[in-house]
Design goal:
Blueprint (H helix, E strand, L loop, with lengths): L2 E6 L3 H13 L5 E7 L14 H4 L18 E5 L3 E5 L4 E4 L4 E3 L2 E4 L3 E3 L12 E3 L3 H13 L5 E5 L3 H13 L2 E5 L12 H13 L3 E3 L2 E8 L15 E7 L4 E6 L1 E4 L3 E3 L2 H5 L10 E3 L10 E3 L4 E3 L2 E2 L3 H14 L17 E5 L2 E7 L9 E7 L4 E7 L6 E7 L5 H4 L21 H4 L12 E3 L4 E2 H9 L5 H8 L9 H10 L16 H11 L4 H8 L8 H11 L16 H5 L2 E2 L5 E3 L10 H13 L3 E4 L5 E6 L4 H10 L12 E6 L13 H12 L8 E6 L13 E5 L4 E5 L11 E7 L1 H18 L6 H7 L3 H10 L6 H14 L3 H6 L2 H4 L17 E5 L2 E5 L11
Parallel strand pairs: 1-2, 1-7, 2-3, 7-19, 9-16, 10-11, 10-16, 11-12, 18-20, 33-34, 34-35
Antiparallel strand pairs: 4-5, 5-6, 8-17, 13-14, 14-15, 20-21, 22-23, 23-26, 24-25, 25-26, 27-28, 29-30, 30-32, 31-32, 35-36, 36-37, 38-39
Helix pairs in contact: 1-7, 13-15, 20-22, 20-23
C-alpha cells in the first residue's frame, strides 16, 4: 500500500528531507506531496545576497529543486496550507482542496520578526527573508533619488548581510544595533569593535547602543517615496546617551531575528514550546504521532535552531523514521552553532564558548592593530582543551580548530594555533591532527572519517566527495578543508578552474585558442555547465582579452569584468577612481605635465607620483572619467592599465642618456618594452624594470621581468616581485643583443600567459614549473618545445592589434553610457562622495567618519 506523505513548506530543509527520503527508500511505495507558499521551488536562502545584481531567481534554485528526478514526488508551489484536520489526516489548501496524509511533515520555517517600533508598518519598511522581499527593496531603491540611504534595523549576522545587499543595490546603508557591538551573539567586545571599524571602512554607517527607534513619513510623503523621487521615511535613532540622529531613508529593512512559523500547528491544537515553535521530541515527532516538524519551525525538546545545519539534521532524522530500514530509531543529537561569514572582504567566525562563560576558563587573545585582525581561543583551566574561539579580519584558523572543539589540543603551545609565525616553533594544527570523528562539514554533519571512507571507496576529488557525502553542498565553507583531507590521503588534486569548468585556466586558454570561441556563453555552453561565477567569469574575460584585440567592454565581455576593468580605472575606498596615464619609461613632456596639472586643478584631484614613475590622479567621480580621458588622449597620452591584470609599468633609470655610469640606453629600452607590451592581459599584473648598469637604480631584479645593462648587451631576469612575499628575479640569459632580448621576453611572457593558472604571478608560476628556471631557459632560449615561433607570433598579433582602451570608449556612445553614478539619474553626481583637507593633503571622507554627518 502506498504511504502518503505531505510536506508543508518547500525551503532548504524541506528539500533535504524529500531528497534524503527518496534516496534512502528508492524502491519504497511512496507518494510525497510538497506544498510551498512561495512561487519558487526550494532555493538557497543562505546565499540570498547572491540574488542581488544578477536578479536571476533560477540561479538560486537548489539542485533538482522540484524533485523531477523522482516521479513519486509532486511539488505544489505558490499554494498555502490553511488548516490541518488531524482527525481526518488531511490538510486544506487556500484553494479549498484537501490532501490526505499518512504522515505530515511541517517545514514551515520562520518569519522575520518586526519589532513594534513606531512606523514599522509604513510602506517604506521591509524585511530581508525571501526573493520577493529583495525584489521589493530593489524597486524602492530604483524609485528613490540619487544618494538614497537605506537603514537596517539589527546588527547581527543577517543585518550585516542585508546592509551588504543594500550597498550592492546602490543605496548608502546604515546598520542600527541596540547592543554596543555588531554580531553580539557571535563575537565579544573587542572583536565586535574591530568588526565595526572594518564595516565602516567599507562605506556602511554603524549606529550602536540605540535604545529607541522611530520611523515616520517625511513631510509631504506617505512613506513610500515622494513624487520627486526623494527618500520616503525619516528614521530617528536615540542612543543610550540620549543623543538623537535622523536618517532620511528610501527603505528600512528589519533584520532583528526570526520567529518560528507555528500558526498552522497552533490552530490544529499541536503542542507548542514555551517560547514558540512546534514542540517535538528528539525524533522530531510532535504531540500528534502522525505529525513531524523539522527545521526552524521545530522546537526540539523546547529549543528552536535558526541555522541550516540543525535543520538538515532534523530532516534526516525524520527521513529515517518514516522508513522501515536501518536508522528508524534515529534521534536529533544536538547542533553545531558555529558561524562563519565573509562579506565585503571581512572574515568573521565564532564557535563554542566564544564569550568565555565556562567557569575557570582561560582566554588566549591575539589582537593585531597592524593587520587589523583579532583572534581568541577559549581554553579549559589547564589550557589543554579547546572550548571556543572568535576570529575577526582573518578566519583562516577556524576550519581546522572548530573540529577540535571539546578535545585535547594537539599542541603544547596554544599560541601557535592562532599566530602563523609561531607555528614553526610550537607546531600548529593540520588536518592530519584531526581525529576521524571530527566534523569537517557541520552543515551536513560529515566527519573526517566519513570523508576518508569515501576516498578509499573511489571519491578522488571534491565533486565526488560532495556527491557521496553531501559535505560542502550547503554553505561551502568546508571546501578548503575537504581538499586538505584529499591531499592528506595522497590524492592528487584536480586543477579545475571552478565548479563550472573541469578544465584549468591554461587548458581553457588552449580551448579558446583552438576553437576560436569568443564569448563566455559559448565557452561554458560547450565546455562547462551552469551560469558561471566570480572565479570563471573574469578568468575567461582575461583569456579572451589575451587572445584578441577586442575591447574588454565589447558585447558580452563587458558583463564579465570586475569593477576596475568595468570602468577602466582603479576604484578607491570612497567610491571614487584614480586615473593613471601611461608614461613609458617614466618619460613625460612639459606640455603633458601642464595638461595633467590643469586636469587635477579643474577636477580638484589629489596628485601623487607613484613608485612606478607615473603620476596618479585620485578622487575622480565615475561620470568625470571620460572628460579626463579626453583631455589626456588629446595630449597624446593613453591608459596606463593600472586597473588591469596586465602590464603596469616599465621602470627605468636614465642610463647612457645622462648618467656617467650608464652602459646602455635604459630609457630607450624601457620605452620600447612598455610600448610593445602595453595592454597585454595576463593571469596577473606584470611589472618590468630596466637598469642601465649593475648599480640597479631601477630595481630590475625586484620585477616580474628585469633587464640590466652590461658592457656588451643586456642580462634578462625573470620571476622577481615586491609586495607581501618579495622575491629576487633569476637570471634567464646574459649579454643579449636588443633583438635577442625582445624575442626572449616575447617568449617568456606569452608562455606565462598561456600556461599560468588563475591569479598566478610570474614568480609562483616559475616555482610551479617542473624544472623551474632551467626548464624555462630550455623553452625560451633553446626552443625545446618548438613553441618559439608561435609565441612570438602571438605577441606580434597583440602588438599590431593594440588600441588604447580609453580612446576606444570615447569613440563609442554605448560604452560612454556606462560612466554614470546613477542609471536612473545620469546627470547627478553621488552626494555621498566627499573630501577634506588633512595636513595639506586632500583625502576622502568615508561614510560614518566624524567629518561626514550621518544624515547626508
Amino acid at each position: 500500500m502506498t504511504e502518503h506523505i505531505v510536506v508543508v513548506g518547500h525551503g532548504m530543509v524541506s528539500h533535504r528531507f524529500v531528497s534524503t527520503l527518496g534516496s534512502r527508500y528508492a524502491d519504497a511505495d511512496l507518494a510525497v506531496t510538497v506544498i510551498g507558499e512561495e512561487p519558487d521551488p526550494a532555493y538557497d536562502r543562505v546565499g540570498l545576497s547572491a540574488y542581488v545584481g544578477a536578479w536571476e531567481r533560477a540561479a538560486l534554485h537548489l539542485e533538482d529543486a522540484r524533485h523531477s528526478a523522482d516521479p513519486r514526488v509532486t511539488v505544489r508551489s505558490g499554494h498555502l496550507v490553511t488548516a490541518i484536520d488531524r482527525a481526518a489526516q488531511q490538510v486544506e489548501l487556500d484553494s479549498g482542496e484537501r490532501i490526505a496524509y499518512d504522515a505530515l511533515v511541517l517545514a514551515t520555517g520562520s518569519r522575520a520578526f518586526v519589532p513594534p517600533v513606531p512606523g514599522h508598518d509604513l510602506p517604506g519598511c521591509h524585511v530581508y527573508r525571501t526573493l520577493d522581499d529583495l525584489d521589493a527593496i530593489r524597486a524602492a531603491a530604483e524609485t528613490a533619488g540619487p544618494g538614497a540611504h537605506g537603514v537596517v534595523i539589527g546588527g547581527g549576522l543577517l543585518g550585516i548581510e542585508a546592509a551588504n545587499a543594500l550597498s550592492l543595490i546602490g543605496l548608502t546603508p546604515h546598520v542600527v544595533e541596540r547592543n554596543d557591538r555588531l554580531m553580539p551573539v557571535q563575537v565579544d567586545g573587542r572583536g565586535g569593535a574591530l568588526l565595526g571599524d572594518l564595516i565602516r571602512d567599507r562605506g556602511i554607517e554603524v549606529h550602536l547602543s540605540v535604545t529607541d527607534t522611530v520611523i515616520e513619513p517625511r513631510d509631504g510623503t506617505d512613506g513610500a517615496g515622494g513624487a520627486d523621487g526623494a527618500d520616503g521615511v525619516r528614521v530617528t535613532l536615540t542612543g543610550d546617551d540620549g543623543e538623537t540622529t535622523a536618517v532620511e531613508a528610501a527603505v528600512v529593512v528589519f533584520s532583528v531575528g526570526v520567529r518560528p512559523r507555528d500558526e498552522l500547528a497552533r490552530a490544529a491544537g499541536l503542542a507548542l514550546a514555551e517560547r514558540g515553535g512546534v514542540l517535538t521530541d528528539r525524533a522530531c515527532r510532535t504531540s500528534d504521532p502522525h505529525v513531524f516538524a523539522i527545521g526552524e519551525c521545530a522546537a526540539i525538546e523546547g529549543t528552536c535552531y535558526g541555522l541550516v545545519g540543525p535543520g538538515y539534521a532534523s530532516a534526516e532524522v525524520v527521513a529515517a523514521r518514516l522508513g522501515d530500514g536501518p536508522g528508524t530509531d534515529a534521534e536529533f543529537t544536538g547542533a553545531d552553532l558555529a558561524t562563519k561569514l565573509k562579506l565585503m572582504g571581512v572574515d568573521v567566525a565564532s564557535f563554542g564558548d566564544a564569550h568565555g562563560r565556562t567557569p575557570g576558563c582561560l582566554e588566549l587573545v591575539v589582537d593585531d592593530p597592524v593587520t587589523r585582525t583579532y583572534s581568541k581561543l577559549v581554553l579549559s583551566d589547564d589550557a589543554l582543551t579547546l572550548l571556543g574561539g572568535v576570529f575577526v579580519g582573518d578566519a583562516g584558523p577556524y576550519q581546522l580548530l572548530k573540529p577540535l572543539l571539546g578535545r585535547t589540543l594537539p599542541s603544547s603551545n596554544p599560541l601557535s594555533l592562532i599566530t602563523p609565525g609561531a607555528a614553526a616553533d610550537g607546531g600548529g594544527v593540520g588536518v592530519e591532527s584531526l581525529p576521524d570523528d571530527a566534523q569537517i562539514c557541520s552543515c551536513n554533519a560529515v566527519t573526517k572519517g566519513t570523508l576518508r571512507d569515501a576516498i578509499c571507496g573511489g571519491a578522488c576529488d571534491v565533486p565526488a566527495l560532495k556527491a557521496c557525502t553531501r559535505a560542502g553542498t550547503s554553505c561551502g565553507s568546508c571546501l578548503p578543508l575537504m581538499r586538505q583531507v584529499l591531499e592528506a590521503e595522497g590524492v592528487e588534486q584536480s586543477t579545475a578552474l571552478c565548479e563550472h569548468f573541469d578544465q584549468s585556466r591554461s587548458e581553457l586558454f588552449e580551448i579558446v585558442t583552438v576553437t576560436g570561441i569568443r564569448t563566455f556563453s559559448g565557452l561554458i555552453g560547450r565546455f562547462g555547465r551552469g551560469s558561471g561565477c566570480d572565479i570563471c567569469k573574469p578568468t575567461v574575460a582575461s583569456i579572451l582579452a589575451s587572445t584578441s584585440s577586442d575591447h574588454v567592454l565589447d558585447g558580452e565581455q563587458a558583463s564579465l569584468q570586475d569593477t576596475n576593468d568595468h570602468f577602466l580605472a582603479n576604484i578607491q575606498k570612497n567610491g571614487t577612481y584614480s586615473v593613471v596615464p601611461r608614461m613609458p619609461g617614466g618619460e613625460v613632456t612639459a606640455d603633458q605635465l601642464i595638461v595633467i596639472g590643469e586636469i587635477a586643478r579643474d577636477h580638484d584631484l589629489y596628485v601623487k607620483v607613484t613608485g612606478g614613475q607615473r603620476i596618479d590622479l585620485f578622487g575622480a567621480r565615475v561620470e568625470e572619467l571620460p572628460q579626463i580621458w579626453r583631455r589626456l588622449v588629446d595630449a597624446g597620452m593613453e591608459s596606463g592599465h593600472a586597473y588591469g591584470k596586465s602590464l603596469r609599468t616599465v621602470k627605468s633609470c636614465v642610463g647612457t642618456s645622462w648618467c656617467r655610469y650608464g652602459q646602455q640606453d635604459s630609457v630607450g629600452m624601457a620605452v620600447l618594452l612598455e610600448t610593445r607590451y602595453r595592454g597585454l592581459r595576463a593571469p596577473h599584473k606584470i611589472k618590468m624594470g630596466v637598469s642601465g648598469c649593475a648599480r640597479e637604480c631601477a630595481e630590475a631584479r625586484g620585477k616580474d621581468v628585469g633587464v640590466i645593462a652590461t658592457e656588451t648587451g643586456w642580462n634578462l631576469y625573470v620571476g622577481g616581485n615586491g609586495g607581501a612575499t618579495p622575491r629576487h628575479a633569476q637570471l634567464l640569459a646574459g649579454d643579449l643583443t636588443d633583438d635577442q632580448l625582445i624575442r626572449y621576453i616575447d617568449r617568456t611572457v606569452m608562455f606565462y600567459v598561456r600556461t599560468a593558472e588563475r591569479l598566478q604571478r610570474i614568480a609562483p608560476w616559475l616555482e610551479s614549473l617542473e624544472g623551474g628556471i632551467d626548464h624555462l631557459r630550455e623553452v625560451v632560449c633553446s626552443d625545446s618545445l618548438g613553441l618559439a615561433a608561435e609565441l612570438e607570433g602571438r605577441m606580434e598579433s597583440h602588438v599590431e592589434g593594440y588600441v588604447d582602451e580609453w580612446a576606444a570608449v570615447l569613440d563609442d556612445p554605448d560604452k560612454l553610457a556606462r560612466f554614470v553614478s546613477f542609471v536612473n539619474a545620469p546627470e547627478a553626481p553621488d552626494p555621498t562622495v566627499q573630501f577634506e583637507e588633512r595636513d595639506g593633503r586632500k583625502v576622502p571622507v568615508l561614510l560614518g567618519s566624524p567629518s561626514m554627518p550621518a544624515s547626508v
